[in-house]
Amino acid sequence: MPRPSPSILRRWSSRIRTAHREAYVHYIAQTGIRDYAATPGNLGCEMLARDLGDGSTEVTTLSWWPSMEAIRAFAGAEVAKARYYPEDEHFLLERPDEVEHHHIVARAAGGDGGDRPLAFEKMHANGDDFVLIDLRGSDVVIGPELIHLMGDRQRGIGFNQLATLADCADATASLTFWNADGSPLDACGSATRGAALKLMEEIDSDTVTVRTARGLLACSRDGDGLIAVDMGKPSLDWADVPLASAMDTLILPLDGAPAACSMGNPHCTIFVEEAEAAALDTFGPAIENHPLFPQGVNVHVVQVIDPAHIRLRIWERGAGLSLGSGSCACAAVVNGIRRGLLGPRVAVQCDGGMLYVAWHGEGVLLTGPVVRSHSGVWAGSRS
Question: Cβ contacts of residue 185 below 8 Å, gap of 6+?
C-alpha cells in the first residue's frame, strides 16, 4: 500500500527559479533525519516528504530574510512570489555561518493535533467570527487539513478565521492566522483584538503586545468595551502587495479603477456611488483570483458618506462575503486617504457593525468591539 503524502505547510513559496542554494536547519525530535544543509528548496521539500511520508507528521517550513531588499535582490523579476515574514527569525534554532540570504527551518511535532482534543474559544467582531486556540506550552502543530475541517460550518466549528496563540520571548504571545479553507494569512484585525482581550484579562492589564507576521503590535482597551490595535504601517509598493507586475497601486488597470495596498495581506478597494447596489458576490471572487494578484486579494467596495464616514462591503480572500474585517477596514481607509477622499480618522460601517480607523502616515490604528460566543473542545474527529 502506498504511503499517504504528508501535509507540508510552506510559509515561503519555493516556486522562485534561482541558482542560489538554500540551507536547511532541522529540528525533528527523535527521527534522526539527516541534515538538509545546502539542499535546493524544492528538492529539500521532496526529501522531507519522502522521509516523513507516513502522513503522521506535520512539517512547517519557515524562511528568514534579513530585509525586503534582500528578498528583492534574491528573487529578481519574480519578487511578487516571495513573502516576507519578519517574525520568522524567532523560530530559527541556529544560523549556519555559510548562509547569506535566508534560512529555512523544518519543525515537526506529534502530528497536526487532529487526533487529540483541542480547547477553543469562539468570538466575533461585528459578526466577523473567528476561533482562538491556545497552544502556549504545547507541542501541537495545527495544519491546513485540520483547519479546513474545523472551518466547515456544517461539519466543524465554523469560522472566517482561526488564530493560534504561542509562547513568545518578546511579547505577551505570538499569533498565527488561518482562513477557513486552511490557507495562511499574515493579518487579521478581528482575531488580533480577540486575542488581545483574552491576554489582557489573563494578566489584568489594559495593554498587551502581540507578535504577528506584521511584527510587534500594541493592543489596548479603548473604553466602552472596544479594543484598539496598532495594525502596523501599510505597504503601498506593487511588489509588497504583491501585484504580478510593476504599476501604480493607487489606480489599477481593472474595472472600477481600484486601489491596492497591503496590511500584511493584499487588498483591492473599489470606490462606488452606492455600496448596496454593487454585485460584490459576482465580481468579488473574479477579482480575488485575477492573475494580477499572485496571492489572491481581499476585495472591498467603499461608498464615501463624508470624509469621516464610509460604508464598506467585503469579499474576503479565502472566506467570501463577510460581515466585517479589521484589516479590510484599515486598507479601505488607507486607500481612501491616498485618493484624497477621507480624513485621518474614519468611522467604517460594515455589514455587521461599526469600526474606527485612524491613519496619520505610520501605523494604522484599528478600534472596535469583540464579543465571546462560546468555548468548547474539538474532539479530534477528521471525518
Answer: 161, 177, 178, 179, 264, 265, 317, 318
**Per-residue pLDDT tens over the stretch 280-322:** 999 999 999 999 999 899 999 999 999 999 999 999 887 789 9
Cβ contacts of residue 85 below 8 Å, gap of 6+? 11, 12, 62, 63, 186, 213
- What's the rounded Cα separation, in Å, for the pair 327 and 357? 10
- pLDDT of residue 108 exceeding 50, the answer is no
Q: How confident is the model at residue 381 (pLDDT cuts 50, 70, 90)?
A: low
* DSSP H helix total and E strand total for the chain: 6, 21
As a whole number of angstroms, the distance between CA 279 and CA 312 comes to 13
Domains of the chain: 8-108 (no CATH), 118-217+371-378 (3.10.310.10), 259-362 (3.10.310.10)
Tell me the CA end-to-end span of the chain in Å, nearest whole number. Answer: 21
Determine the Cα–Cα distance for residues 177 and 148; give it in Å rounded to an integer: 13
C-beta separation of 331 from 234 below 8 A: yes
Round the average pLDDT of the chain to a whole number and report it: 76
Question: In 3D, which of 344, 356, 377 has the Cα closest to residue 193?
Answer: 356
**What is the helix (H) or strand (E) element at residue 359, kind and residue range?**
strand 353-359
C-alpha cell recorded at residue 113:
493535533
C-alpha cell at 249: 497601486
Q: Which amino acid is at 371?
A: V
Phi-psi region of 349 (alpha: psi -120 to 50; beta: other; left: phi over 0): beta
Question: Is there a cis peptide before residue 369, judged by omega within 30 degrees of 0?
Answer: no
In terms of DSSP H, where are the helices of the chain? 41-51, 68-75, 144-151, 189-203, 280-288, 326-338
pTM score: 0.69
Give the span between the Cα atoms of 245 and 241, in whole angstroms.
Answer: 11
* Cα separation, 307 vs 150, whole angstroms: 40
